[in-house]
Amino acid sequence: MMSIDPRRSLVAGLIWLVVALAASFAVAASFWAGRAAREIVVQQHVRRLLLETDQLGSDLGQAVSSRISAARTPQTGTSLERTYTDLVAQYPNQGWFVLADETGTVVAGDGSFPKGTSVIAAPWFSRGREQPWIGVIGAGNGAKGNRSPLLGDLSLPIRDSTGRTLGVAAAHLTWRWSTRDVLRLSAGLEPSAQTLILDGDGRVTVGPKTQLDRRWEGISTGDPQPIATDEGAAAALHPGPGIRLPRFERLPGGQTVLVARSPVTIEPDGAAPGWQVQLSEPKERVYQRANALAVRILWISVCLGAATALAGALGARHLTNRLRRLTLSAASIGRNEIERIEVPDGRDEVAQLAGAFAKVLDDLRRERSELLTLSGELERRVALRTREVERLAEESRYAAIVRERLNIARDLHDTLAHSMMAMLSEVRLLRKLQAHDPGALPEELAHAEQVAHDGLNEARTAIAQMRLNAVRDTGLGPALSKAFDRFIDRSGLIGEFSSDSEAARFGDERAETLFRIAEEALRNVERHAMANRVTVKLAMKNDSHLCLQIEDDGIGFDTSLSRPGHFGLVGLREQAQLIDAELHIRSALHEGTTISVTLRVAPEVLWPLDAAACSSEDEGVSPP
To answer: What single DSSP character describes residue 113?
Structure first.
């Protein structure tokens, strides 16, 4: 089953995108179309209301004008009864129903007022004697029926050709005399629409009983006119004077109504008593149809949007089926269920992507095979190197043992060998004294005992030095200084020791070897050089090389001659090689001896330093 989470499925993301776009477009289109349709419907409604009002005003004016003309042309000497008959014959469907003489007595009619009845006190009679009057002749005055007429009742004076008033005629105005346009417009008018006729003072002359003879109290709300965008078309509907566009007015009860008014013009003399036909309709009813249409458009847009989203979702799923199959194939490759990615037919992006994935997978498998081969070869080589390292480690352990044996041999040579040689010399001397000078024997025995005691002390010192490491603890400089002081006290020679601070702090494993070299050189001076003065210098050269120099003013020797059985100089060279130091011995007969050892202590310096450069303080160290 396809996941609907867009974070886990590209198809779901595309479907949600299509749904969101369709919903957004549907809502936006519904609001835009609904708003436009709402404005159109409202304007159509208002136009119809304006046309209705204008048509009613025009027809009312024509009806009144025709009756005024008929009432002004009775033949001289004709009775009112005959005039009534002529009027009814002339206008059979106009609803004429009563005729009163100038004294207010009913002389003819259709029975609404009994013949002979006095109507002199009725408003329609008193006002109708002077000029045409429109109002309501209610049942209380003998009028037939009790409903409020749409256009009211008309009373007007009956005059002869001389202008004398003969009486007053009253007629009930009905739709039967209206034109078909009025009937058609009124058929589509909302039942809630209210028709009123106002006089020149704004009083209601025709309308509900609660509003008769009262001023219209509607106040403009200041809202924009619903047909204001088409004012030219509205003016074209009624080009006559006094036209007023519909507007919203608020009544005292709080209700807001849309009001349209049209003046009533009387022909042929153009008299305009100020009558106005007014149609009003509640604001809610004006927008009810428009709102219903907007809601309908909204639902239609939503349904169309849903259909579009569904079609888009199906289309997106169909279009991404190839990509989904590629994803499933790649997942199967990851689970080792298949050996090769399924490449779909076609030349689109999915086919190209699948082909690229297949090529990458083949390359990875080939590289993996090569890597396995290389890994096997590497393991074989590692095994060989491991055995080689083990062999070298064994050799290194053996070399360490050999080096330690050499150290012990050198220490024995430096201590016990010298002591034994001294004791052998004393024994030989004692044998000679015993044979030739017995009296000198006690003194020589005491000297031999001292020699043996000194050899024992030297052996103990060597063992102590093997157990302790003064060089590591205090540094090469202080260790050499103490050893030199002991040498001076033991030998009685004149000596001088100097060391700079940087060289004195040197104290790694190479410093121990330098210390042994210095000790061996001082012992050789004591036993063989016959010197009077000894100088030892320890210094750094060019911040990279440590120089140890031991100089005496003894008898010297020829460095080119070999001395079988003597291992002093050989031991010095071996110890220098152990620490990659350079040893230089300069000596000649009766010119003293100078031993210089140079050790590189800075690994970033690559050039070698000539050991002879340490023999003079003025000479510097430079690369070759």
So the answer is: S
CATH number at 63 reads 3.30.450.20
Identify the domain containing residue 553 by its residue range: 473-624
Peptide bond into 263 cis (omega under 30): no
CA–CA distance, 483 with 487 (Å, rounded to integer): 6
pTM over 0.85: no
Q: Looking at the structure, do residues 262 and 350 belong to the same domain, yes or no? A: no
Q: For 422-451, what is each residue's pLDDT tens digit?
A: 776 777 777 777 777 777 777 777 777 777
Highest mean pLDDT among 311-315, 354-358, 466-470: 354-358
How does DSSP classify residue 314?
H
Residue 215 counted as domain residue: yes
Distance CA 61, CA 55 (A): 10
**Beta pairing, strands 494-499 & 533-541:** parallel
User: Which tens digit of pLDDT belongs to each residue from 230-287?
Assistant: 554 444 444 445 556 788 888 888 888 888 888 887 765 545 568 888 888 888 877 7
Taking the C-alpha atoms of residue 206 and residue 193, their distance in angstroms, rounded to an integer, is 14
Within a domain: 512 = yes
| DSSP for residue 49 | H
454's enclosing H/E stretch is: helix 441-467
Half-sphere exposure of 440 (CA within 13 A, CB side): 11
Q: In what order do the strands lie in the sheet with 96-101?
A: 106-109, 96-101, 165-172, 153-159, 133-135
